[in-house]
Fold this protein.
Amino acid sequence: MSRVGTNRKRAQVARAIGRTEGQVACGLEDALWEAGPNVVTDFADALLFEGKPKMSEDKKRKWGALGHLREELTQFLAGKNAAFIGGVAVRSYGGRTAATIDFYVLIDPKLLKETTTFLEEQGGTLASSVENTYTFRMGPAGIDLDVRVAKSPLDQAALAGAKPASFRDRKLTIVLPGELTAMKVKAYSERKETPSGRVDRTDVLGMLKVGATTEHEVRRILKKYRPDLLCELDEILST
């Protein structure tokens, strides 16, 4: 699909869901701002409505801790050979239309020890590891944060081709939409019967629906790095 066609498709989707075109593909900075305290949520919390349930002290602490984690994480990743993937990245491209706190980063293997130390200093503990993905339970913020080490050819290509992005003028990167969608197909293939697998499927369809990437591009990437997953893409598209 041409760039003109892609932009037209984004505009059509934006109108269909009642958003502006810019709100479909909000960009990494806005996606990160949504993923924690911001001026909008602060304003909403400050308003007093009759009957409005008051946020519990525990939720307040976790919400504040989430904002602190976002601040520290983006400072830590700035200028490093690491890129955002997962839910925040999908949201950045408009594949998700709602805010998400799904933090997932792809890193150079050389950064694993340093990243582990950093997350532990932020109150995280290693909860599990599968293949090249390490899940840290960030206790203070009440979320899990996933770190994927770029060892496979697909992951290495995704990290090498990641594009510049920013948050509060910090130099970050985000994986390109085609590679991100291909990685989502891989994730789907490994957990398709679980709630997470269903989210992966929805993310793939969302990325295609808004024109962030194309089926042709995702097939090209899978054919090059994971031809065994082409049937998984077909399954996603047929359901």
Q: What stands out?
A: Residues 164 and 173 are 4 Å apart (CA to CA). The longest strand covers residues 124-130. The chain has one domain: 3-238.
